[in-house]
Amino acid sequence: MDIEELQTFVEVADAGGVSAAARRLGLSKSIVSRRLFRLEAELGVQLLSRTTRGAALTEAGVTFRDHAARIAAEFEMARETLQPTGELRGMLRVAMPLSFGPTHFAPVAAQMAQLHPRLRIHTAYSDRFVDLIAEGFDCAIRVGYLPPSNLIAKRIGPITGQLVASPDYIRAHGAPETPDDIPAHEALMQGTEAWQFMDGNRTVSVQPQGRFKADNGTALTSAAVAGLGIAWLPDCLTHPHLASGALVPVMTRYPPPVAGIYVIRPPGQHPARKMRVFTELLIAHFERNPGLWGRGG
């Protein structure tokens, strides 16, 4: 039984169809379909029920999917054990934040591709929290505070932020002095998140309210510059606007706790070497360029 057939079946099962799996694998649909037919012929069972809307696992497919995923993962682990310093192959799929992924993290993906010419790299940029397992990503870069989950996180560095507003907003509405003042102000938010601030050694959590929301930090920065409200934003987004005076810090006696930059991966005992190498490159990039992330550069 061909290991590529097993890997292809797992991709199709997770992606929900041949077309989506082909995009993930960087292959043509015909190659993916041929691998599936060969695997089903070897097993003597139908693994997928093909429809015009995609492909659904049969009962046998549901049973076989987990076994196939385990076999494929163990094969990759065995190959890495035998060739711990060999050339990286296959594909690395990474979800990156849209706010500063193209400027802050994309150079590392490009460096990874230069160092490992036989490795295919697919990156997706979005500020939403993608489902790594359901959407077929090897890992994701996330910035801020991590919600509880069963995902495995590797912190690659800190990121600082602060509460900011435009001088026009402050002239019209005043500035909050304490966390208790926050609910009375127009807050610029991604969704329904709570904001946290430090009161000495104590963390205070407040629930802001506001009419302007965006799932992108750059868009929230623009809204703050336009005077639409107060916003908690990373220093790497606000630094030029603070320098020009378009934004000013507010409520500085209660700073937000330091957030982090993380590489997140699905649960598993042994991360693939391509992910370990990528994480090491990110850490080195972070250490070489501290000014990218805040006021220190």
What level of helicity do the residues show? 40-55%
Number of helices: 10
The mean pLDDT is 87
Shape: elongated
Structural class determined from secondary elements: alpha/beta
Low-confidence stretches: none
Strand count, sense and barrel status of the largest sheet are: 5 strands, mixed
Strand content: 15-25%
Instruction: Say how many strands there are.
Output: 14
As a whole number of angstroms, the C-alpha radius of gyration is 23 Å
- What gap, in angstroms, lies between the N and C termini? 54 Å
Biggest sheet, spatial arrangement of strands:
4-3-5-14-6
SSE string: HHHEEHEHEHEEEHEEEEHEHEEH
Description:
By secondary structure, the chain is α/β, with parallel strands linked by helices. Helix content is 41%, strand content 25%. It has helices spanning 3-15, 18-25, 29-43, 59-82, 101-115, 132-135, 167-173, 217-225, 235-244, 273-288, and strands at residues 48-51, 54-57, 90-96, 119-125, 139-144, 152-159, 161-165, 186-189, 195-199, 202-206, 209-213, 230-234, 248-249, 259-265. The strands form 4 sheets. Strands 4-3-5-14-6 form a 5-stranded mixed sheet, covered by helices on one side. Strands 11-8-12-7-13 form a 5-stranded mixed sheet. The longest helix is centred in the N-terminal third of the chain and has 24 residues, at 59-82. It is elongated.
